[in-house]
Amino acid sequence: xxxxxxxxxxxxxxxxxxxxxxxxxxxxxxxxxxxxxxxxxxxxxxxxxxxxxxxxxxxxxxxxxxxxxxxxxxxxxxxxxxxxxxxxxxxxxxxxxxxxxxxxxxxxxxxxxxxxxxxxxxxxxxxxxxxxxxxxxxxxxxxxxxxxxxxxxxxxxxxxxxxxxxxxxxxxxxxxxxxxxxxxxxxxxxxxxxxxxxxxxxxxxxxxx
Length: 209
What we know:
Elements: E1 5-10, H1 15-29, E2 33-38, H2 54-65, E3 73-75, H3 87-101, E4 105-109, H4 116-128, E5 133-137, E6 150-154, H5 156-166, H6 180-193, E7 198-206
Parallel strand pairs: 1-2, 1-4, 2-3, 4-5
Antiparallel strand pairs: 5-7, 6-7
Helix pairs in contact: 1-5, 2-5, 3-4, 5-6
């Protein structure tokens, strides 16, 4: 893995962990600089009774578990399901991030992701980073289809860190896709496809050699 500066674009907190958490752990372990950007901490869409800033606190814990430095976490709070209204503003923020970080590799939601906010981050991510290698991560409950064109091999410890990071989201544990068995099973499934124990799969959106 030759990339040294990695950028993960997560529409909402936990999307990055779900889509490429194991790869994040591996990249950090290998000495790469990983920057995680979440575009919403969902202050207006948490379950009743939760502090509006719960997800801000949870993503800080989760990214720390994966080994990210505090200064490499960038948070915004665009309203959930309303990203399309802020498309240009989001693009301008991405351009600023590009100049600041100059990443070698960018992770975005798959172009086939049907969530409206995810679509915006995927599309504007491509616009902002069109001269950078880009991989689309899978969130199976949102993907109509998914082309497994790229795989990142993982060890069990990478998957276990991914699971541990996701347990930091106490406010989201009612989500079926945060089930630890599902996370491990998907890692095993992708591993079987390339004859290794664990892996994460990605769509190749742009690859620059």
